[in-house]
Structure formats: structure tokens, C-alpha cells
Amino acid sequence: MLVKFNLNGLDVEINVKPGEYLLDTLRNYGVKSVKKGCDGSSCGACTVLVDDKPVLSCSLLTAKVEGHKVMTVESIQDEAAALSECFSREGADQCGFCNAAFALMVHALKKENPHPTDEEIKDYMVGNLCRCTGYQSQQKAIKAFLGGKK
Amino acid sequence: MKAKSFLRASSLEEAYKLVKESPRNKIVAGGLWLKKGNADVDTLIDLSLLGLEKIEDKKDYVEVGAMVSQRELEKSPLVPEVIREATKAIMGPAFREIATVGGSVYGKYGFSDIITVLLAHHVELVFYPEAVITLDEYVKKPGFYDGILTNIRIFKDKNKAYFKKVEITALDYPILNVAVVKGKEYKVVVGSRPLVAALCENSTKYLNEGGKDFAKAAELAVEELKFGDSIATKSAYRKQLALTYVRRALEEVSK
Ligand SMILES: Cc1cc2nc3c(=O)[nH]c(=O)nc-3n(C[C@H](O)[C@H](O)[C@H](O)COP(=O)(O)OP(=O)(O)OC[C@H]3O[C@@H](n4cnc5c(N)ncnc54)[C@H](O)[C@@H]3O)c2cc1C
Ligand code: FES
Ligand code: FES
To answer: How far apart are CA A46 and CA A104, in angstroms?
Structure first.
């Protein structure tokens, strides 16, 4: 079936299987920044934004994004670079597998709650796992990036 | 997931007709559980165009459309705080943007946090074709209801409420969950035993007849419910948890 949606500002029309998930569609389309971690709704590595809201692309049927706006990290490059600086400063990343999803989550958090408390950052990021670093350093980096409340 | 076709239903009638046509045609809400079960279906019937994603104040109750996401539920000021908090404890926000309230209730999952907390309230389920049943009746009835769940009605009641999800790590299924509401009367619910949530009738009766010994109320709850083993833990541990958290819940709502 043909599904039409807006991908990072461009209108696309992609032929997909009826039971296909957005993660596979995007990766087959060449968007490799979207990672397949658990492929089971549990790690957050596949996060993208649909109509500005974070969703797990491994668990969202592509047919469901017909007519919607999909964003991957490519559409927030400058912000991702700035966040990445904060991550480096805090030692908050190693292999980088989780980073694109983290950047999209932080982008969405900033829109929804520009000055989150520590607890609010933790609650927002709880579904995004990182196998390399401790979460303390990421928490600090996100806080520094957002200038969060105590 | 394997599917031969995907159809965005244009009416409930159309969706229901397809459901009745074959057990291989399935309603897809968030689709998270269908994915987990690696479903193999003929037609996926999507309900996104049917206006079922509204939360409305209806004077005596709050009406939640079956396609409302868990994330919308937790953010809505119309929804009782304890239900919002219980919903927020499920996975992360990117998960809850997809998972729906209808899919959570219809599925009657043993581990469900949403069913446990809703069961402690007066809740009615509205199905197409026309049928209204209480959540308690739905949960007790074996199997699934033959119809499309359209709305969940949460009746208003001034109350004090408590919910606890006991899990091993933040993203685990609960090994037990407890909800207690003290409004016009008490309601004590224990779920994820790992059986689906149930109202503790003896315990609730004892409290509503004026019983004040909360440890005894917790014992009554544990005596009347079945507990089982799962990979995560044994029934004996679940019972201990239930004794502690039901008592704590009652102390909390009685402050
Ligand atoms: C990895 C994972 C972890 C989870 N952890 C938890 C947890 O800790 N706590 C918790 O409470 N829940 C948990 N859940 C369950 C989750 O919160 C949802 O309840 C579940 O995914 C179902 O919602 P859905 O919208 O995805 O439904 P779907 O997968 O779309 O549907 C589920 C079933 O209900 C049927 N259905 C859906 N909507 C309707 C309708 N309106 N009318 C008739 N039939 C319908 C479908 O045909 C299907 O059979 C977890 C799920 C997963 C996959
Ligand atoms: S790949 Fe989607 S949550 Fe892990
Ligand atoms: S830096 Fe390796 S998974 Fe996060």
C-alpha cells in the first residue's frame, strides 16, 4: 500500500506492507539515524517525532502516519549538535547508538516543558536506555542544555 | 506483524461488519500488544477516523474515547489524579503516545495498571453495537466482549485514592499492583497477581460496614484472591506485598 507523509519537511510517498512498522520503513528508505535496538517497545532507540510528539517507530504501523509529519534527528541538526556538546562535557555518551533518540526526546521535552525539574527530566527520559553510560551524566547534560530547574 | 490489508474504518458499522466477517480481521488501536503477540491477520481495522480520541466532561462522569492515548489520559485535568499517576508509571512517554486506553481495557491484561486503578472507581464501558457494562462485569466475564469498545465512562466521586505499582525495575511489568479508593464507600483492588485485577469483595465489605482494622482488611483481601507464580516472582511474595500495600493504602486514604 502507498503511504503519504511528510518526512523532515519533504512530502514522501512510500510503498509499504500493511503490517510494516515505521522503523523498518524509515531505515529501508535510507534514514539510518533511527536505530533498531530491542524492536519490542522497550529501549527507546527507535524514537522519532510524529506531529512533534515522541513515538517508538518500531511499534507504530507506517500506515498510521498517513498525512502526518514525521521528524528524525536530521531535522534538528543544530540542536542535536548543541546537546551533543553538553553530552561530551559530561561524559554522557560512548558508542552513540542511543544519541539520536535522546536528542529527539530532549527536543520534545523542551517544547512541552522548557524548564523541567530533575524528576521531570527523569520521568521523560525513562523509556530511553543507554547501555554504555550511567544515566547521571545524561541527566546532568540534559539539565545543562535546558538550564533546568532544581 | 503480518497483515494482508489495512483499513481505516469510516464508521463503527463498517468496522464491526469486518470484525464479524472473520476472526482474522482485527481492530488495531495503538497496535503495541498486537506487535508483541506477533499477530498474523487478514485485515487490520484502524479506528483513528471515528472521533474516539476525545476526553469529555459529561456532568456525572468523564467520558474517555477508546482511542485516547495513555499520554492524553495522563495529561487531562478531567481525569482523576490517581488514574493519571498510574498511567504515567507505564514505560516511557514515546510508548504512551501510542498505547490507547481502549486497547488497555479491552485486552484485560493480567499485569494491567490501568485496569487495577480503573476498577477502584465506578467505570462503565460503552460498546458498539449498543451495550453498556461495568468494568467489573467485563473483567469477570470470561473471554472478550463481542463488539467494539467506544468509550470508557469514569464516574465522578469525591474521594481519596492510592495506587501502587510494584516492579523490579522502572520498565518492568508490575509484579503486583494495588488501588484503593475511599469515596462514598471503600474499594480495594489488587492486580497483577499475575491474574487480572479483581475487586476484593470481602475486604471492601468489611471496611464499608465500619471495619477499622486495616491489617485485617488486607488479610481478607489476600485470603479471597488467587495468587500465582510467574518468571518474575512467586505467589508467596506477591501475598506479602499485597498484605503490606493494601494496609498502607488504607492508612493513606484514611488520613
Ligand atoms: C513491552 C510492553 C510493556 C507493557 N507494560 C505495561 C505495564 O507495565 N503496565 C500496563 O498497564 N500495561 C503495559 N503494557 C500494555 C500497554 O499499556 C497497552 O495496554 C497495550 O499495549 C494495549 O494497548 P494498544 O493500544 O497497544 O492495543 P492494541 O495492541 O492495538 O490492541 C490490543 C487488543 O485489543 C483489541 N482492541 C483494541 N482496541 C479495541 C477497541 N476499541 N474495541 C475492541 N477491541 C479493541 C485489539 O484487537 C487487540 O486484540 C505493556 C505493553 C507492552 C507491549
Ligand atoms: S527498538 Fe523500538 S523501543 Fe527498542
Ligand atoms: S552511548 Fe552507547 S548506548 Fe548510549
So the answer is: 10
Residue ending a domain, among B155, B183, B204, is B155
How many domains is chain B partitioned into structurally? 3
Q: Is residue B50 in some structural domain?
A: no
Choose which residue among B90, B168, B192 to substitute to test ligand 1 binding: the one with the highest number of ligand atoms within 8 A of its C-beta: B90
For residue B175, is it within any domain?
yes
Q: Are residues B167 and B150 in the same domain?
A: no
**Is B112 within a domain?**
yes
| In a shared domain, residues B31 and B83 | no
Does residue B104 lie in a domain region?
Answer: yes
pLDDT in tens, chain B (255 residues): 899 999 999 999 999 999 999 999 999 999 999 999 888 999 999 999 999 999 999 999 999 999 999 999 999 999 999 999 999 999 999 999 999 999 999 999 999 999 999 999 999 999 999 999 999 999 999 988 889 999 999 999 989 999 999 999 889 999 999 999 999 899 999 999 999 999 999 999 999 999 999 999 999 999 999 999 999 999 999 999 999 999 999 999 999
Domains in chain A: ranges and CATH? 2-73 (3.10.20.30), 75-146 (1.10.150.120)
CB contact under 8 A, B95 and A63: no
Q: Which of A27, A33, A38, A125 to mutate to test the pocket of ligand 2 (most atoms within 8 A of CB)?
A: A38
Give the DSSP per-residue string, A60-102: SBGGGGTT-EEE-GGGGHHHHHHHHHHHHHHT--SS-TTHHHH
CATH, residue B188:
3.30.390.50
The boundaries of the domain holding residue B133 are 55-155
**B83 and B11 inside one domain:** no
Sheet holding B148-155, edge to edge: B55-57, B61-65, B148-155, B123-128, B131-134
What phi, psi does A123 have (nearest 5°)? -60, -35
**A2 to chain B: which residues are within 8 Å by CB?**
none
What interface predicted TM-score (ipTM) does this complex get? Answer: 0.97
